[in-house]
Amino acid sequence: MPRSNGGVALITGGSRGIGAETARLLAANGYRVCINYRVDKAAALAIVDQLEAGSAICVQADISQEDEVVRLFAELDAQLGPVTALVNNAGILRPQCRVENMTAERINAILTTNVTGTVLCCREAVKRMSTRNGGSGGAIVNVSSAAARLGAAGEYVDYAASKGAVDTLTRGLAVEVAGEGIRVNCVRPGFIYTDMHAAGGEPERVDRLAGALPMKRGGQPSEVAHAILWLLSDDASYTTGTFVEVAGGR
């Protein structure tokens, strides 16, 4: 296992899928974990109950809303202490759709959560982590998507575009805070078995496309979580501005 520096980890969208697996893995490696959720309190509490008593909390917040992001970090400060590891996992998509049929409401909803929310969480984390601000450093991992490279034509071009913005944020912020004790990296999952595909209107999407992948299978959330753990760990101490593909070779 990677060498963990422990500390306090915030996982946005941590009540399901990749976020939930990451919460379990980080807690098992000595982190105190805050699981952020937007709607499903029962799912978030179920993850907390699976972890060692006192090692995890859950906090409701819609990261697309600036005041809720500020409140999320304030509650984390009060309950566990300042964040030292941030996993920007929260993201949304809408049902499969061609660009010619997309509405401004759909596009803006995706961008506000996937881009604005991620930037706001980075902002609050940097305020606490940066040695420039009196912090002791930390690590940020942004969860992007292979769609940022591939475009998701005919399905989710708006989602792919939002993840392209996350990629650019990763690179720019990594350089901006590299001298302040903060590392910023990114994972790009491919076709992973999560319920996000149901939100896009095709629950069996991974099975449909798995045969076209070089590895001939879809990925599991735990496989992404292990990449996130490594990027947060001391084993990645000289790694920043880096993208780890977890996409079965695609």
Q: Would you mind describing this structure in some detail?
A:
By secondary structure, the chain is of the alpha/beta class. It contains 9 helices and 7 strands. The chain has helices spanning 17-28, 41-50, 66-79, 104-129, 147-150, 157-177, 196-199, 205-209, 221-232; strands at 7-11, 31-37, 56-60, 85-88, 138-143, 182-189, 243-246. The radius of gyration is 17 Å and the shape is globular. It starts with 6 loop residues before the first strand and ends with a strand.
Summarize the structure.
The protein has 250 residues and is α/β, with parallel strands linked by helices. It has helices at 17-28, 41-50, 66-79, 104-129, 147-150, 157-177, 196-199, 205-209, 221-232; strands at 7-11, 31-37, 56-60, 85-88, 138-143, 182-189, 243-246.
Considering DSSP H and I runs of 4 or more, what fraction of the residues is helical?
40-55%
What is the chain-wise order of helices and strands?
A: EHEHEHEHEHHEHHHE
Our estimate of the beta-strand percent is 15-25%
How many runs of DSSP E, i.e. beta strands? 7
Cα end-to-end separation: 26 Å
Integer average pLDDT: 94
- The structural class is alpha/beta
| Rg over C-alpha atoms, rounded to the nearest angstrom | 17 Å
Shape: globular
What is the number of helical segments per DSSP (H or I, 4+ residues)? 9
Q: Report the major sheet.
A: 7 strands, parallel
Query: How are strands sequenced across the largest beta sheet?
Result: 3-2-1-4-5-6-7
Poorly predicted regions are none
